[in-house]
Design a protein that fits this description.
Layout lengths: L16 E3 L4 E3 L32 H18 L6 H37 L17 E8 L3 E9 L1 H22 L4 H25 L3 H17 L8
Antiparallel strand pairs: 1-2, 3-4
Helix pairs in contact: 1-2, 2-3, 2-4, 2-5
């Protein structure tokens, strides 16, 4: 077989079995003898090594566990923690990002309001005023030969979406931790760590006096670095 014919290496998906016949990751458990026995060929829940029927928990909880394990696998190359550790770790990270984005969003709203009061046109190009929600809603633009570039509509700003998505993740992972029987105090510790870390990072950024352009890249740079230091990371 030539190098061109050699199939790419299979990356283990949470320990699931790769089935060449069906070309997918499948459950590692065996079927009941009443169903013919042999290995179960049902698709594995993403991030786990079992299907929805063999997961031992509700499908909703299995999918959250799998998502947490899949995030760790994608970051570190292989699952290095059990589902409980992964869920707590992802909860910690989600709380941090939700609070961090909320701080940036508050600054964005205040800055947009100041710009609006000073210039009456914070977006330039003759855009109509957005009102008190200038930091939450921005204009979309169109262009033609007759009018040039002009505001054609409104859209939710990216930081608003990021903050809302992380709030949803906090709820999802907190509920998963509860359903898995993880002690409430462990959940609260994870939430407190995330909140404290977000406050510390914001204080550091305020002290650095970053430009608006530099602050825009912070949400992309900081979370991956912090996740690499999270409990359960083999490199930590």
């Amino acid at each position: 077989m030539s190098d061109q014919d050699t199939p790419p290496p299979r990356v283990r998906n949470g320990g699931a079995h790769w089935c060449d016949e069906h070309q997918r990751w499948e459950c590692i458990k065996n079927r009941k003898q009443s169903r013919g026995g042999g290995r179960c060929h049902s698709p594995a829940v993403t991030g786990l090594d079992r299907c929805r029927n063999h997961a031992g928990v509700t499908l909703e909880l299995a999918e959250v566990q799998g998502a947490a394990m899949d995030a760790w696998s994608a970051t570190y190359g292989q699952p290095a923690v059990d589902p409980a550790q992964a869920v707590i770790g992802m909860l910690n990270l989600a709380v941090f990002r939700a609070n961090f984005y909320a701080g940036l969003l508050e600054e964005q709203v205040l800055q947009a309001q100041e710009d609006r009061e000073e210039t009456g046109d914070p977006y330039g190009k003759g855009a109509p005023p957005v009102g008190e929600g200038a930091g939450l809603i921005g204009h979309t633009y169109s262009a033609d030969k007759e009018h040039g570039i002009f505001a054609s509509g409104e859209a939710i700003r990216g930081l608003v979406l990021l903050e809302g998505q992380e709030r949803d993740r906090v709820v999802k992972y907190a509920k998963a931790a509860h359903d898995m029987g993880i002690a409430e105090r462990h959940v609260r510790v994870a939430e407190q760590q995330g909140e404290q870390l977000a406050g510390a990072i914001r204080q550091i950024l305020d002290g650095l006096n970053l430009s608006p352009e530099q602050r825009q890249v912070v949400p992309q740079l900081v979370p991956p670095v912090l996740r690499a230091l999270a409990p359960g990371n083999p490199a930590a």
